[in-house]
């Protein structure tokens, strides 16, 4: 059962099942689209955090730039959607490569602080350049142009468009993670010094991971701008980066579908709890503490434990934990 859950085809099948089930269990097409959009952005964040070991607070930069680029190209340049999306991905990849190239020159807390500083820099640039970004009001009236003669104004029609892009980009990210490139990222995460010693260009791989993550995150930002009809200033601030990191941690780092799971849990819980208690983020904070203490692999780790119990197999998380104990301390 555990081996079945580890198969990439199962993860893609779960992503496809999520896209098919959401319209059946949710009344809001907007919320369903948000889950897939943020799930995509969280999966891109996971490529850095879970696969490369980089805790970046700069994901909001690429998400916000994607929103602004989409708004400007659609609203002022009049580009069609299919031409706008590759341009947005290119903007996200180029910006992420530049931010990554500068940030990876430092490690640990200094790397984190650099990405946070870049996040603040881009936020104040967006706030200052109000002629382009709309400043505090954001870029308003971002349209949803028709695609192949089919208008995207209906929430569920737009959801279908988002779902197709989500599955295509998820498959692409999965292909990257399973490739030699992805395996090398795991080697860098586990032991960067050894990876460098055997000849891997570590910096080049990290910058490439940043570029891929930035491109996908920018596309998610573009989809979000078309969804809500505005490219808000809040999309580019560091709170967006925090939200994406929280989604990734809740779902489980090192697994792309877990990011989708974390995004769905965060957004659905927020939608339900905010109607009951305006301070629902306190409950989210308590949940994060519980995950940090008892579920380091997030919701996906919980699913693996449940599958192990059903199949009566040893818990892989417990086994890996025992392996780190001194021999005399093992049960």
TrEMBL record:
Keywords linked to the UniProt accession: Cell membrane, Membrane, Transmembrane, Transmembrane helix
Compartments, as annotated in UniProt: Cell membrane
InterPro entries: ABC_transp_permease, LivM-like
Domain of life: Bacteria
Membrane topology per record: Multi-pass membrane protein
MF terms in GO: branched-chain amino acid transmembrane transporter activity
Coarse class of the protein's main subcellular location: membrane
Record field: transmembrane: 12-29, 85-102, 109-129, 156-173, 207-231, 243-268, 280-300
Any Gene Ontology CC annotation: plasma membrane
PANTHER family reported in the protein's UniProt record: ABC TRANSPORTER ATP-BINDING PROTEIN (PTHR30482:SF17), HIGH-AFFINITY BRANCHED-CHAIN AMINO ACID TRANSPORT SYSTEM PERMEASE (PTHR30482)
Protein name according to UniProt: Branched-chain amino acid ABC transporter permease
């Amino acid at each position: 059962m555990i081996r079945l859950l580890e198969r990439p085809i199962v993860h893609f099948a779960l992503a496809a099942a999520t896209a098919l089930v959401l319209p059946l269990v949710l009344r809001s097409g907007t919320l369903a689209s948000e889950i897939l959009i943020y799930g995509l952005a969280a999966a891109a964040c996971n490529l850095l955090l879970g696969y490369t070991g980089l805790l970046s607070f700069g994901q909001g930069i690429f998400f916000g730039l994607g929103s602004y680029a989409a708004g400007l190209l659609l609203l002022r340049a009049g580009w069609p959607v299919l031409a706008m999306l590759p341009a947005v991905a290119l903007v996200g990849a180029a910006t992420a490569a530049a931010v990554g190239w500068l940030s990876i020159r430092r490690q640990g807390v200094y790397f984190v602080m650099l990405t946070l500083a870049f996040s603040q820099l881009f936020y104040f640039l967006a706030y200052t350049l109000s002629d382009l970004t709309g400043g505090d009001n954001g870029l308003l009236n971002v349209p949803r142009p028709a695609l192949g003669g089919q208008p995207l104004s209906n929430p569920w029609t737009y959801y279908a468009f988002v779902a197709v892009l989500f599955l295509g980009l998820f498959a692409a990210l999965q292909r990257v993670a399973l490739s030699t490139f992805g395996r090398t990222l795991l080697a860098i995460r586990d032991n960067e010094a050894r990876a460098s010693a055997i000849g891997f260009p570590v910096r080049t791989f990290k910058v490439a991971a940043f570029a891929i993550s930035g491109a996908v995150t920018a596309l998610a930002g573009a989809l979000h701008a078309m969804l809500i009809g505005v490219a808000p200033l809040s999309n580019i601030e560091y709170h967006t980066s925090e939200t994406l990191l929280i989604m990734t941690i809740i779902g489980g780092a090192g697994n792309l579908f877990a990011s989708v799971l974390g995004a769905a849990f965060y957004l659905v819980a927020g939608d339900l709890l905010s109607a009951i208690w305006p301070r629902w983020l306190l409950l989210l904070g308590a949940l994060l503490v519980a995950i940090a203490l008892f579920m380091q692999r997030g919701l996906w780790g919980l699913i693996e434990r449940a599958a192990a119990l059903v199949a009566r197999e040893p818990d892989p998380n417990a086994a890996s934990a025992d392996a780190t104990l001194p021999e005399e301390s093992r049960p």
